[in-house]
């Protein structure tokens, strides 16, 4: 593990991804304590002010501080993406483990269900679910989680099928190890890297999809300042010159998604067994 | 070699042991099966080293895997120490699993690379709840010493060891649960020739010291001749011949054994042996030949061999062969 940590620190791309992520997390967590401006406070007299020292990202059409809303938006985006990633990992991962270990009919049924979900483009699926369950944060999240579950499912199922036939798993079975023990000691520890990589991708996917849902009005509803909805609100003013309304939340989404993808990409290379660097040990 | 005549009670018996795997087949075509092991019958006496030889694909490893309970037989019986174990539910298998342990062929793949040697050796004791943590740690130290590894090995990872040392770890791991019988599946064939003898000698010493019974699976006839008390020869899932070592190597009675022995190198340039070459390839176990499975490659085969499946017949004391031709060899 130590060598992996060293490798991550020495990797410039990885460092960039982690740095961007760290800055955004810092903005989300510490922002409200430093920038003590109410993101919901309407002040029509100050509407549509360009960026200045008082308002680093300007103000919107009803005079709310865009920076304060950006901070809140960061909290929402990161928080929702984390929740989606964790729940998706757990549900999809556990189902994948079960399918891989039990195989047979259970595997067949679960796999066909996952195939059916995968048949829909992820964004369309998330939209359909969000509409079906009624617009709002929770139904949008359910949609995104549902789209992400099959990815974890297939990944973990494949890993279990691969590892199940590893000689050291056989060897533990010959000693009398139960399925639970096999998973806990011999299978799950080997899949941690794969899960981490997938989780980073899903994190990005969630940021983008939640923003897309917000953009078309199916995600988090106003007045909560979600980055996607903020872009929609800013769109109307983009042509009249008030670029700051849409630009900053757009940059936020961009940075967060890029950070997630870069981390996923670099993790994949670092954990790749063929790169000559074994993990553990 | 210890006199085995005094202890002839069979510790393990296989009767008509059969394993068929579903073969990959088309969606519409008839369901096909791989006949991995077909009607194999033998018994292993307490305290002996029973050799199982055959080329790859002969089903010898499948027999071993059934024996340690890794896969259930399709049909047939397995009796261990007087108890039927072939159709036991998994929960009742547990005491048996402790008593029969396996040593794997590949000492690199059979040890989890992320666990320390101490944990690997202690795993069986944890599973079978033998002793508390402190006792287990003491036992690990004792076992490591027993197999000839330094005491500090417990804190290290498998990749820090050589192939021979890893196989010693594998042996310690199997011995940790105090088994009565070991199934050694090609335990030295992955090792460098120079360390093969060391590991074999270790196994031999341990067998004497711990009163073990060993099923020794191998394709290496020289090793088998050196190590085993009795030998069974397998071909395409069937037993061909079963005999005490001296009897088998002095005078093979089955055409397959004859060819097998003639293919093994003799460490004496003065001794010339007629080389008997088997024609053709091993037939597919999905569609084995009718009658005797060897007949497609046997130089003694007659028309009758395609009709009748030979059974094991005693041709000399303790020497059995499955061949219709009594007039040869």
The CATH fourth-level homologous superfamily of the largest domain in chain B: P-loop containing nucleotide triphosphate hydrolases
Radius of gyration of chain A (Å): 22 Å
Shape of chain A: elongated
Could you tell me which chain pair has the largest interface and how many residues each side has?
A: A-B, 20 and 28 residues
Which CATH-level-2 architecture of the largest domain in chain B?
Answer: 3-Layer(aba) Sandwich
Quickly count the domains of chain B. 2
Count of individual helical segments of chain A = 10
Strand and helix order of chain A: HHHHHHHHHH
* Quaternary organisation of the protein chains: heterodimer
CATH H level, superfamily name of chain A: MetI-like
Proportion of strand residues of chain A? under 5%
What is the number of helical segments of chain B per DSSP (H or I, 4+ residues)?
Answer: 9
Coarse shape of chain B: globular
Query: Gap between N and C termini of chain A, in Å?
Result: 7 Å
Approximate helicity band of chain A: over 70%
Q: Indicate the CATH architecture of chain A.
A: Orthogonal Bundle
Query: Low-confidence stretches of chain A at least 5 residues in length (pLDDT < 50)?
Result: 274-281
Give the rounded overall mean pLDDT of chain B: 89
**Rg over CA atoms of chain B:** 21 Å
Keywords (chain A): Cell membrane, Membrane, Peptide transport, Protein transport, Transmembrane, Transmembrane helix, Transport
Domain ABC transmembrane type-1 (chain A): 78-264
Protein name (chain A): ABC transporter permease
Subcellular location (chain A): Cell membrane
């Amino acid at each position: 593990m130590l060598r992996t940590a060293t490798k991550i620190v020495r990797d410039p791309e990885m460092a960039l991804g982690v740095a961007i992520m760290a800055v955004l997390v810092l903005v989300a967590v510490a922002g409200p304590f430093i920038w003590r401006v109410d993101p919901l406070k309407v002040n029509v007299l100050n509407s549509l002010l360009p960026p200045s020292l008082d308002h680093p990202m300007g103000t919107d059409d009803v005079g709310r501080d865009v920076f304060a809303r950006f901070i809140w938006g960061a909290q929402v985006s990161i928080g929702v993406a984390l929740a989606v990633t964790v729940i998706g990992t757990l549900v999809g991962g556990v189902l994948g483990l079960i399918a891989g270990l039990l195989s047979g009919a259970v595997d067949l049924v679960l796999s066909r269900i996952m195939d059916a979900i995968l048949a829909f483009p992820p964004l369309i699926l998330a939209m359909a679910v969000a509409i079906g369950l009624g617009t709002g944060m929770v139904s949008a999240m359910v949609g995104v989680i549902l789209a992400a579950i099959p990815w974890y499912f297939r990944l973990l199922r494949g890993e279990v099928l691969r590892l199940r036939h590893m000689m050291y798993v056989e060897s533990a079975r010959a000693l009398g190890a139960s399925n639970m023990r096999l998973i806990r000691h011999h299978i799950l520890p080997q899949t941690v890297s794969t899960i981490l990589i997938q989780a980073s991708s899903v994190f990005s996917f969630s940021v983008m999809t939640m923003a897309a849902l917000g953009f078309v009005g199916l995600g988090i509803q106003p007045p909560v300042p979600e980055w996607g909805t903020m872009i929609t609100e800013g769109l109307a003013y983009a042509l009249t010159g008030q670029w700051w309304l849409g630009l900053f939340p757009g940059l936020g989404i961009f940075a967060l998604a890029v950070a997630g993808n870069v981390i996923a990409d670099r993790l994949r290379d670092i954990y790749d067994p063929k790169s000559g660097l074994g993990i553990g040990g | 070699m210890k006199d085995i005549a005094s202890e002839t009670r069979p510790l393990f018996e296989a009767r008509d042991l059969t394993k068929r795997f579903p073969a990959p087949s088309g969606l519409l075509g008839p369901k096909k099966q791989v006949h991995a092991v077909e009607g194999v019958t033998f018994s292993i006496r307490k305290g002996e080293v029973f050799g199982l030889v055959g080329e790859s694909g002969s089903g010898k490893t499948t027999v071993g895997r059934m024996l340690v309970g890794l896969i259930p037989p399709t049909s047939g019986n397995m009796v261990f120490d007087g108890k039927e174990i072939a159709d036991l539910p998994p929960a009742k298998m547990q005491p048996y699993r402790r008593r029969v342990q396996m040593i794997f062929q590949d000492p690199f793949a059979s040890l989890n690379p992320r666990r320390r040697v101490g944990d690997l050796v202690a795993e069986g004791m944890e599973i079978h709840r033998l002793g508390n943590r402190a006792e287990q740690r003491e036992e690990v130290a004792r076992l490591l010493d027993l197999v000839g590894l330094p005491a500090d090995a417990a804190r290290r990872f498998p990749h820090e060891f050589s192939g021979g040392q890893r196989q010693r770890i594998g042996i310690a791991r199997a011995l940790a649960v105090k088994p009565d019988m070991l199934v050694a599946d090609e335990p030295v064939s992955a090792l460098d020739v120079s360390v093969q003898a060391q590991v074999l000698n270790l196994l031999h010493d341990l067998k004497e010291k711990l009163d073990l019974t060993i099923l020794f699976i191998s394709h290496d006839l020289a090793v088998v001749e050196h190590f085993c008390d009795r030998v069974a020869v397998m071909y395409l899932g069937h037993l061909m011949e079963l005999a005490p070592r001296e009897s088998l190597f002095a005078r093979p009675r089955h055409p397959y054994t004859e060819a097998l022995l003639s293919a093994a190198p003799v460490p004496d340039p003065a001794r010339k042996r007629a080389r008997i070459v088997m024609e053709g390839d091993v037939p597919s176990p999905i569609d084995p030949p009718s009658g005797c499975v060897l007949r497609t490659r046997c130089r003694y085969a007659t028309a009758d061999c395609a009709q009748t499946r030979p059974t094991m017949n005693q041709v000399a004391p303790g020497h059995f062969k499955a061949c219709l031709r009594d007039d040869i060899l």
